[in-house]
Design goal:
The complex is a heterodimer of chains A (about 280) and B (about 325).
Chain A (H helix, E strand, L loop, with lengths): L1 H7 L17 H6 L2 E11 L5 E12 L4 E5 L6 H9 L6 E6 L2 E2 L7 E4 L11 H5 L1 H6 L3 H14 L15 H14 L4 E5 L7 H18 L3 E5 L2 H7 L2 E5 L6 E6 L8 H6 L4 H13 L2
Parallel strand pairs in A: 3-8, 3-9, 6-7, 7-8
Antiparallel strand pairs in A: 1-2, 1-4, 4-5, 9-10
Chain B lengths: L12 H36 L9 H12 L8 H31 L1 H16 L2 H12 L3 H25 L3 H8 L5 H38 L5 H10 L3 H29 L25 H21 L1
Helix pairs in contact in B: 2-10, 3-4, 3-6, 3-8, 3-9, 4-11, 5-6, 5-8, 6-8, 7-8, 8-9, 8-10, 9-10
Classes of the chains: A alpha/beta (about 280), B mainly alpha (about 325).
């Protein structure tokens, strides 16, 4: 891991998961906190009218938290992630990261997209080390780190393959490794398992938990799957249908690592509650 | 790791044989096509009773072909052959450089696109043959005129396909590089260029043939050397067999030049654009769609403008 650290230079504030914000070091506490304040997002629709994607959305994400976001399709969850990543600008309101306003992209964020978005002309290891290449980080340590990450998701030996030779699940694993390569201090995941079959999906969720516990990266995780959100999150935010507002939030106290079956069983009936909230949303 | 997730096995001999089959098939069809033409030709001659200057016999064409291929015969084509091929290649190279640079500039900067697009569409709508006298007035009867005409025909498909390639990229691919907070130059270098490369090659494959077309048209209408000049000369002496022989040579030149570019395409841009292809490397040509007609240009310009709006929104 020393070599890995060299990739980004320093990495401050290893955080524990769960309700650790009070015990985390002060700098880390401010570093990753995200404040969304009355954010409005509009964009022009195809017919010339305006679509209101987010309406007066406010939320707080503590440092070191794994936050799941669930909501109906088109409720602006993806837009929210883009705003946090700084690759889109809000039409109104403010987004703060570590107390300062987010005005542009931040290289210390890892982004996992709905589709793996691997570049077909690069090998698996080249795809994994893509952030290092783009950011001009030293090659050797990044390749080493890439290999470690690939090994941790069972992809040792696939380094020289091309993405087209991998299954969808394997591609998404590579995408997660890529997002973690430059030791981001925040991971943004936009329905990373949406296009993957149910069985692989369950296994990937379990693997993701392991990876996140190993690398201790806080994350914002958008998903359609309530069990997945319950399984991975410290806190689940429920968003309304478009325009997206915050409907409710649930804190999950079950210790990690968790077992996926328990999330499915939903002993605290949180999943059921979320489901009923969302089905109310669907009524006109 | 389950069985389902294992990647496709490396190619076995049987797979290679299976891969070779389509090639053999297409060779077979080629032979069939040639035989068909010969049969129809002979049938028309047998039943039609045309004079030789309208439709020469195949043996006459064969004789003429041998004569122009023979470096020692008085009607040897080789000086003219190289003149045509070189002009075609120069026109193509010029078009490649200018077309790719302009296509990328149009993709990156909206104002460049808006200024250049009307001219490009207008240029494409004008029949190039009508411009040949003008070009010859300006550049004379030497090779320069031929190269310019070849360039004018070749540059359009390169510009349009490059533009389409650099602008028609999945949002996530762009977000991937943008989320790292790097500038547009790196975005271009690490994502857009390679994403566009298969498209660019589609343009180049069309362009090399168009360049040949332009060069020959220029030669027929007025030049000092070139196969087109020979065609014009043969025409004045009603040597139709000779013209047919030259057409065969031109077809072969076009085929070979196009093949060279196609091989470069398969070598340097083997991945399928947009999709994560499931074929292995070197598994044949990518299938990026060519864009040729001015009508599609207009359409593609509006889509890329729509994309540009999206850019601006997200900036």
């Amino acid at each position: 891991m020393t070599s890995a650290r060299a990739v980004v230079g320093q990495r401050s504030g290893l955080r524990r998961f769960g309700k650790s914000s009070t015990t985390a070091p002060a700098d880390a506490a401010t570093e990753n906190a995200i404040d969304v304040q009355n954010v409005v997002m509009r964009y022009p629709a195809r017919d010339g009218s305006e679509v209101l994607a987010l309406d007066d959305l406010s939320m707080h994400v503590g440092p070191g938290e794994f936050v799941g976001i669930v909501g109906p399709s088109g409720c602006g969850k993806s837009t929210l992630l883009k705003l946090v990543a700084g690759i889109a600008n809000a039409s109104g309101g403010k987004l703060l990261r570590a107390g300062t306003e987010i005005t542009g992209p931040q290289p210390d964020i890892g982004f996992v997209f709905q589709s793996a978005t691997l570049l077909p002309w690069l090998t698996v290891i080249e795809n994994t080390t893509f952030p290092a290449r783009v950011l001009g980080l030293p090659k050797k340590p990044s390749i080493e780190r890439g290999r470690e990450l690939l090994a941790s998701v069972g992809l040792s030996g696939f380094e020289k393959q091309y993405p087209g030779e991998l299954s969808g699940g394997m591609q998404q694993r590579v995408a997660i490794c890529r997002a973690l390569l430059h030791e981001p201090k925040l991971l943004l995941m936009d329905e990373p398992f949406a296009s993957i079959d149910a069985l692989t999906r369950d296994r990937l969720a379990t693997e993701l938990q392991t990876i996140l516990l190993t690398h201790r990266v806080p994350a914002l995780f958008v998903t359609h799957s309530i069990p997945e959100a319950l399984f991975l999150s410290d806190r689940v935010l429920v968003m309304s249908a478009r325009p997206g507002r915050l409907l409710a939030e649930f804190t999950l106290t079950a210790p990690k690592p968790r077992v996926l079956e328990e999330a499915y069983a939903d002993p605290d009936r949180i999943g059921a509650e979320i489901r009923s909230l969302l089905s109310e949303e669907h009524q006109p | 790791m389950t069985v389902a997730e294992r990647p496709p096995a490396l190619r076995s001999l049987r797979q290679l044989a299976r891969a070779a089959r389509p090639k053999l098939m297409s060779l077979g069809y080629l032979v069939l096509a040639v035989v068909l033409v010969i049969v129809v030709w002979e049938l028309v001659l047998t039943f039609g009773d045309f004079p030789g200057y309208v439709l020469p016999g195949l043996s006459d064409v064969w004789r003429a072909l041998k004569a122009i291929l023979n470096p020692n015969s008085p009607s040897s084509m080789w000086t003219n052959f190289w003149s045509t091929v070189l002009a075609t290649v120069y026109g193509f190279l010029l078009a490649a450089v200018i077309g790719i640079v302009l296509g990328i500039a149009m993709g990156e900067f909206q104002f460049v696109r808006q200024i250049a697009m009307p001219y490009i569409v207008a240029m494409q709508s004008v029949p190039k043959a009508a411009l040949v006298p003008l070009i010859i007035t300006w550049a004379g009867y030497g090779s320069t005129s031929k190269i310019i005409i070849g360039f004018m025909l070749a540059v359009f498909p390169i510009i349009v396909n490059t533009l389409q390639g650099v602008s028609d990229i999945s949002d996530d691919r762009i977000n991937l590089v943008r989320s790292l907070g790097v500038g547009r130059l790196r975005e271009l270098r690490y994502v857009r260029w390679s994403s566009a490369l298969p498209n660019i090659f589609v343009g180049l494959e069309l362009a090399i043939v168009y360049s040949l077309l332009g060069v020959v048209v220029a030669e027929v209408l007025g030049a000092q050397t070139g196969l087109g000049v020979m065609i014009a000369q043969f025409e004045t002496v009603s040597d139709t067999a000779g013209i047919f022989a030259l057409l065969v040579v031109l077809a072969v030149i076009g085929f070979v030049l196009n093949k060279i570019v196609a091989v470069a395409h398969a070598r340097f841009a083997w991945w399928d654009r947009g999709r994560n292809h499931r074929r292995g490397r070197r598994a044949g040509r990518p299938s990026a769609k060519p864009v040729v007609s001015p009508a599609t240009t207009v359409a593609s310009s509006t889509t890329s403008e729509r994309q540009m709006d999206k850019h601006e929104m997200s900036r």
